[in-house]
Here is the input.
Amino acid sequence: MLLFITANECEQCVRDNPHMLNHMYNAGIDYATNDITGYYENREYCLFRFENFGIRVNNRWNTYEMSLSSIGITIEILTTR
Here is the structure.
């Protein structure tokens, strides 16, 4: 499954500066807080909150690949079954 999140749907820090996504590192889904976090210039940022869209994610039966660019975040969710 592919999930594309536009920069406009992200948190305010991304909406204000979408080009920061091009330089983000160690981005990933934080299952405890149900959001996507990443680092930019040695500071942690919350990029997207799934709860704002009524989505609850878990890693029980899947894994994912993530790609970030100034237009948004693309997540490919892969089943492990």
The chain has a mean pLDDT of 96. Residues 2-79 form one domain.
